[in-house]
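Repro:
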Amino acid sequence: MKTNVYIDGFNLYYGCLKGTPHRWLDLATFCQASFPRPRNQINRIRYFTAHVNARPNNPQQRVRQQTYLRALRTIAHLTIHLGSYLEKPTRMPLHPPPATGPKTVQVMKSEEKGSDVNLACYLLVDAFDNDYDAAVVVSNDSDLAEPIRLVRQKFRKKVLVLHPCGPGRALSVELRRVASKSQKPKGGHRSPKGDTGNSSRDLGKMGGAVRKWYSRDLGLSSCRARRERLLEVTAITCSTGAMPAPRFSTRTRTFRRSST
């Protein structure tokens, strides 16, 4: 079955990747492990996100994202679709409201715009072009319920919703209602409670992280050059906690994440 995967990048990250060791997820491996052959043939992956900005408390945020996006672009059947990332100061109420004094505080509010609209457009256009037999939507955004319903009703396509929900996060009722099927990501092992879809570790088990495809992105031919460049890049990311410190094996010429 020819399958297209539509990934809401911010929803995936904040839903079950943030604060875990699996933020550098290999999306091609993740999709293939989630929907293996021969029943599913991954035709294309569309990844929807927006460029973030550096912040005073997180100055390397944009650098880490750009590094990850460069690696994703090495996946032949994956395309990246960009929305916009807006930041503006705004006043918000304090909770609980104080008995005296100001009842609001000024904060810097950040908001990603456009990913849900872009995802909905490509989901519908690809269905019209008969580009897939089945679609997988990786998101928990209930705003996508209507385009999913239209794809199923008008084009008679199957749409599976993969809810990127970590522990304590509820699955969107609206998406579950309109999808052909909905589920959480499942990995190759079970969590202590036996729930195969309740842990971001499942994503890491399936998807891996920055491995050979990362080295290809850097455009480096020799093993020594790759090691030197990876050390240079990860010096930034490790110092900010973006990924574990790397270990290199000159014997096997591979890049591995440290277990510590």
